[in-house]
């Protein structure tokens, strides 16, 4: 969709990256680290400063104590964390439970690792966890469940009771949880992020994944991290060794600085996103697009059923919109009648997109 957006010079609310950048102090540290000769392979696990900062962040934000020396790993973004975790933990034939719709890398990576995917469809309109279907998806071959909260693409923030249900099923069936929490700070309108790993009985069976790209609005930096019990970390570290070995140390140092010294930046992201959502939502509603509830991440999902032409699905609709209206969105798929707006963009861009959509629809 990004390529098509460029070709048609459309207003791109497709790919989820913010228009605003992160703290200047972090950019300064990244470049001075290069001048200070931090330009050779750092440790396989990550520089100690960042691993210590990640451990402190885990304790401070979610009350999850973390031994930086055995329970942290720095990765090339959360994308590599997901890949290394799946390659490290999944054996061929293992079943993995994933909620649909979901972020695009999960299925590909899990299949590559030999997994059998057990999808569980979140229930509309609020993308709630269907308790009976979830319970039915667990069985003797279930190895892991992927839990992404706040959720891409819906903006849903998993509730405590949903997480408690997942925690009890994981313990009942001896299942590992991979917790993709890259949007942990991007919550608003009263929602609170709770990590599955913070719940009783989950510390030894859950791995959390975070991203400096999302936490500091530096998505190009591709610095992420995993925290979790040492026993589960070992095979993930092995996979990381042979995927990428390590991560640029200048960027790691800058992220360590950010976690320790720029909490105000990530604590302010929720309010800024709430304001952008408040700008977009009524305009979309006025056009007849049904906006679904959401309290986190960069994304708003809208129902476009009444604008779909005969035989057209969400993907075809998004292509048509890019070409004919000059606005790029992302199909949610499944289901086939929802589209995702990434509204982490300049207000002027949001206004321009609404104007074009209003004229076209
Ligand atoms: N998980 C989710 C849910 C995401 O939306 C993203 C963003 N691409 C990632 C993981 C990957 O994050 P990173 O850019 O740190 O690799
Ligand atoms: N997480 C972002 C999104 O879902 C971007 C990720 C990507 O482009 N691979 O839009």
UniProtKB/TrEMBL annotation:
Example of a GO cellular component annotation carried by this entry: cytoplasm
Any Pfam family hit: Aminotran_1_2
UniProt GO molecular function: kynurenine-oxoglutarate transaminase activity; pyridoxal phosphate binding
Keywords, sorted A to Z: Aminotransferase, Pyridoxal phosphate, Transferase
Organism domain of life: Eukaryota
Domain Aminotransferase class I/classII large: 11-357
This protein's record includes keyword Transferase: yes
Region (Disordered): 1-24
Cofactors: pyridoxal 5'-phosphate
InterPro entries in the cross-refs: Aminotransferase_I/II_large, Kynurenine-oxoglutarate_AT, PyrdxlP-dep_Trfase, PyrdxlP-dep_Trfase_major, PyrdxlP-dep_Trfase_small
Family in the record: Belongs to the class-I pyridoxal-phosphate-dependent aminotransferase family.
Protein name: Aminotran_1_2 domain-containing protein
UniProt organism field: Haematococcus lacustris (Green alga)
